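stage 2 :: seqdesign
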């Protein structure tokens, strides 16, 4: 960058420092020309801007070079028949014709890189727009019994439920709601996965871990649609599928007395002893 940075500043070895002192080895000041032309990459521009904030001399030089980048960009866009000879003639006094040509080429290449970057970003955005819904469903879908055609066949909660061997089950004699809680000890407490059947909505529910010390912790919560979950004689697959949800509690498994599935209005749907 020093080849271009010297333009308008006196060049290496003749550079005046921020207080009028000679600074032949202080290369950061030589960047002002390249910065004015807009040919620094992002990292270089950021470094120079940090320097510019504290350097009055570079600020003055930048003011003197203001407008160079648009002029060179316009020259770079000229047809081939009006190319480098015209550039050399018009800029012969400052800088030299060969330097002017290099500056024009640099600006043109920088703009071409920006256009290519823009095309890549547009393509990436289009991919996200097209593939985004499917990606989201693959990550989040399935826990609710596959409510959309794109939902993943096996949800993360069901996959964990199938793997875990420590399971506790109960069916409430009044509500007939069936629950199976799969447990997994973690360093932070207990990971619990709930399989829920024979529950109809609309409801909002929670799985609550009740400790042997009487403390209560909400493991997870969810809503039940009108058609419900795990209804054996249901007319749709949505309603036939059980609900799988998971969450965590600070209790260790041996500190839990039982689990409760309760509606938000306080109704106990099923209790599962731990």
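stage 2 :: out
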């Amino acid at each position: 960058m020093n080849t271009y940075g010297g333009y308008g500043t006196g060049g290496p070895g003749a550079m005046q420092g921020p207080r009028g002192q000679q600074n032949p080895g202080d290369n950061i000041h030589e960047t002002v020309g390249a910065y004015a032309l807009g040919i620094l990459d992002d990292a270089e521009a950021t470094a120079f801007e940090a320097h510019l904030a504290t350097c009055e001399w570079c600020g003055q030089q930048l003011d003197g070079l203001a407008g160079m980048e648009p002029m060179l960009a316009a020259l770079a866009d000229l047809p081939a028949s009006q190319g480098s000879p015209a550039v050399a003639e018009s800029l012969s006094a400052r800088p030299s014709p060969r330097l002017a040509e290099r500056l024009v080429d640099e600006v043109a290449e920088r703009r071409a890189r920006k256009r290519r970057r823009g095309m890549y970003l547009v393509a990436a955005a289009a991919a996200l727009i097209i593939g985004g819904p499917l990606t989201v469903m693959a990550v989040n879908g399935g826990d609710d019994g596959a409510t959309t055609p794109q939902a993943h066949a096996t949800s993360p909660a069901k996959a964990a439920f199938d793997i875990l061997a420590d399971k506790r089950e109960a069916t409430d004699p009044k509500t007939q709601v069936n629950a199976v809680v799969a447990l997994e000890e973690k360093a932070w407490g207990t990971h619990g996965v709930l399989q829920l059947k024979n529950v109809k909505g609309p409801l909002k529910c929670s799985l609550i871990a009740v400790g042997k010390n009487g403390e209560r912790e909400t493991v997870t919560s969810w809503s039940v649609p009108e058609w419900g979950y795990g209804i054996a004689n249901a007319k749709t697959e949505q309603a036939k599928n059980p609900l799988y949800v998971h969450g965590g509690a600070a209790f260790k498994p041996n500190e839990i007395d039982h689990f409760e599935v309760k509606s938000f209005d306080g109704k106990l749907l099923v209790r599962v002893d731990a």
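stage 3 :: structure notes
- The CA atoms of residues 37 and 69 lie 4 Å apart.
- Residues 2-113 form one domain.
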